[in-house]
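Quick start: what a row looks like.
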Amino acid sequence: MGPGARTRFRRWTALLAIAWALASLIAGVQAKLEARERALLPFSFSSAAGVHVINELCEDVELGGIASRDRLVAVGGMPTGEWLRSGMPGLEIGRDVAVRVEKPDGTELTAAVPAISSHQGDYPYARLAIVAIPFVGLIYLVIGLGVWLLKPDRRESWVFLLFCAVTSSLLTLVGSALGLVWLFVGITIPFVGATAFHLFTTYPIEPAWIVRHPQLRAVVYACAAGLAALMIARPLLGPSADAVDAAATSFAVGMALLCLGIAITERLRRPSTKTAERADVMLIGGLLSFVPIIVAIGVHATVGTTFTWTLSMALFFLFPAAVGYGIVRRDLFDLRLVARSSAAYGAATLAITGAFAALITLAAGGLRKFDVDARTPMFSLVFIPIAIFAFNPLLRRVQRIVDDVFDRERRAYRRAVREISEAMVSMLSAKEIVERILIAVTDTMGVERALVMLHGDSGDVLRPTASRGDWDPEALALELEPDHPVCRQLWMQRQELARGDFDDESDPETRSACQDAFDTLDVELLVPILFGVDLLGIIAVGRKLTSERLGPDERQLLRTLANQSAIAIENAKAFDEIAQLNKTLEARVEERTRELRDTQAQLVQSEKMRSLGQLVAGVAHELNNPIGFVHANLQLLEDYVERLMRPDVDGARRVRTRDAIEKLLSRSQEGAQRVKQIVQDLRTFSRTDQAELTQVSVNEAIQRTLALMEPRTKHGIVVERDLGELPEVRCYSGQLNQVFMNLLMNACDALDGHGKITVRTRPAQNGVVLEFADDGPGMSPEVRSRVFEPFFTTKPVGKGTGLGLSISHGIVERHGGTMSVESEPGHGARFTIRLPLAPPPELESGAA
């Protein structure tokens, strides 16, 4: 089955499952409405696996020895199952009906009981089940639809929707399984087991045996379809109909137990990874949801219950919530830490509450010895506030102790970060810095092994510099080019990455290359060492000795460690350069002075190229499309030219071949023109433009800058252009391009991938007004007042130089204009630039 056919199959089966769920919902609601006017037996009973157990009794009616936990065998001479499927015939309010029950000891009893109205019987458990369980069914359907809509292209979302829709159908019919509704229930039950098997063998871990034999899923669905067909044919089966009910229920229960077994087995085979963590979430949700139902059905079918077994489905919503959370979210919370801390809090609170109750009891007993009634209002008003006042400090103290116990690792990490930071200040050797990193990762965090990759002497390849732990020779020989997909992703994402982070990568070559690097190193995380826009190195972190996944605290330590090491490595490089300079100081004073003058003169251009560098990956992707298109056309063109040169080609075919060549040339020219335009935009942006002032169309300059920014804005950021008719402005075009690029880059960073940027231009008296606004988080008054200061930045270490807005502000001022900012926390930011049509005389004379 091809990708297109597979997509259509999933879409149609999903729509069919949703339609079945909605039809079941309508049938269930209609049956419940009709039940309000129907005559009922003077007791409630629940059914499962062909067994019907009496739960609650109507206290105002003589039942002739019928009691809770009796099995309802027949009503009005008809077997109970057949009687229910027939719509409960023979019941009229006030008239007696003969019922036959089987006692827990095996004896049978026949009694005549009066039929009552639905308003006479008070069955709390049954009424609660009728309201609560269909509501759980609605939760199933909503969660399944939500996950499918959020992740429509993922297989597990489709399978999860099938399971949720089928289970929702069953739950919404609880308490109304009569007549036609009974048929809905009978068809649905086996498919609950089949879809559960499909889900547990698909997400989050697909067992190796199901990969080798995927047809097993089809076998399970075929069994479910066969049982559903038998359910439809029940009226023709006579006394064997109850056996079909039992078989369908047993199939569903057996599939549930099998699914839990699969989840447990596959989880035990996996190390502590993100996939294993999703398996933990799914397994916990399954245990809390399935086990109570399986136990309740077992008790119902063996010894009977005094309440309807369907109440065990009240916690059933935990399973879709857990699975849906795991499918949608990439990073999950630390379940073990939450469970341990919650249990500790619960135990401590329970102990203190018990001590509090014991104290009140002892006080009441003591007061009774002195003939004082401890139930008097005075006792409550005086003693209980005193006890609360005495126990509240104790409760707070116990909570602090619990916090200290579970915060021990965090405090150890914070101490390690402080010690490492203090130590790295004095380190001026890259080798010493790397060794300190490895010690911190392996000893402090308990990681089995770690490796640091830095640029070699040539500076063009990342290769292992130092390592701790056992490593394969292949891993220690790995070299990564700067343009390797792993390096690009670490540079662009600017955070640690795991192998699972590439599961959703749309480009198969990038995904394969990144996963191959992880497989070669066999590590859990790769952490980038970034300084500014440069990727200095990579910290490869193995798994913890405890086999637990690296949690948020460890990841934060790794990020801090990488930032500190980046600064230390740069300091070490600077120290090496200074030491080298000291050897030939006199000979290089003039050279360094010239370099400093050049650096000062090129500061504006350097900052602009830093911004441009952040867009290189996106622009490269934009270039690949037309280049690939032209390449493909050239291959076709070669075939057509060869065909045209053949002497045996007739005239009509030659004409068609020439037409095809003309079309290929035309399309190739369009692709080349697109490449030329992108390159022209890059050249226009990147040139220094210090030679001469030119008349510039500001709107065109903004459009070019937005075209370069398209890779950052086309996935979630809306750019609204409101460009008015403007006169041309005499300026340095490249410098203004840098101002526009800096403002747009800052807006994208503030929006973090989602939001709106508005660019507005208007003519003004002897000039133009340009506005760049975003609907991001905005700035506080303190940040707003310092935003144009050199080296001031709110970004983390390594993510910003603090020069962009300062340089932009200087460029605008040198052109005789002004640049201002308006911003409030939570209301975005708006930068306003006012430029004259002609620059000041000193700029004309070349003083800029």
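That is the whole record. The first helix runs from residue 3 to 35. The chain has a mean pLDDT of 77.
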